[in-house]
Design a protein that fits this description.
By secondary structure, the protein is of the alpha+beta class. Helices cover about 35% and strands about 25% of the residues. The strands form four sheets. Strands 3-9-10 form a three-stranded mixed sheet, with helices on one face. The chain has a three-stranded antiparallel sheet with strand order 4-5-6. Strands 1-2 form a two-stranded antiparallel sheet. Zinc ion binds next to loops.
């Protein structure tokens, strides 16, 4: 930054030699990133699993869209579908999968993933504790050795009954691999650390 002149003890003014904290280039990049993240949030706020999976065919991200179907009685019914963003291959042939089928498959994946408990928010931990104390209260007499709910049971519960944000948060806690969507099948691919 050369607009600052720094006063020193001897009364003379020196041109500032220190580097600017961020360059204009970096600043622009950050601003771009922030604004794209904001867009992304507002565009996708109703979808739980956008940008959490990878396309198995072209390695792009997976995003969601909503389709409204009109039922015979005239009532609209909305379905959420997930599919490739085609950012890496605009001709990608990976199909779309309905969200309920995504959730079904995620529940199976839960048993295979490592859940990073450090990433589970305090709010969710509190929920787990509340659930367990409620559970103990109900079963205290007739089912003494009934196990407490474990994290994976809870994750499954959130996938079915949680809010959009809770579902999103819980899938973010899947660690050690990536979730790949290919031809309607969701699979968990563990990162290969040994090379
Ligand atoms: Zn793709």
């Amino acid at each position: 930054m050369d607009i600052l002149n720094i006063p020193k003890g001897n009364g003379k003014w020196y041109k500032g030699q220190h580097e600017p904290i961020i360059t204009k280039e970096v600043f622009e990049k950050i601003r771009e990133k922030i604004s794209s993240e904001c867009d992304y949030r507002s565009n996708n706020k109703e979808f739980a699993f956008t940008n959490l999976f990878t396309c198995g065919l072209c390695n792009s991200g997976i995003s969601a869209r909503e389709k409204i179907k009109k039922l015979k009685n005239g009532k609209p019914l909305s379905y959420i579908y997930y599919g490739c963003t085609k950012s890496k291959d605009k001709n990608c042939k990976n199909g779309y999968v309905r969200e309920d089928l995504i959730i079904k498959q995620l529940i199976e994946i839960v048993d295979k993933v490592r859940i990073d408990e450090k990433m589970i928010s305090d709010k969710l931990k509190l929920e787990i504790n509340r659930f367990n104390s409620f559970y103990r209260l109900i079963y205290k007499d007739d089912n003494k050795d009934k196990k407490e709910i474990n994290i994976k049971d809870y994750v499954k519960h959130v996938l079915v009954n949680g809010s959009v944000d809770e579902k999103r948060e819980i899938v973010r806690c899947f660690s050690g691999g990536k979730i790949v969507l290919e031809n309607k099948i969701l699979s968990y691919q563990q990162y290969d650390y040994v090379r």
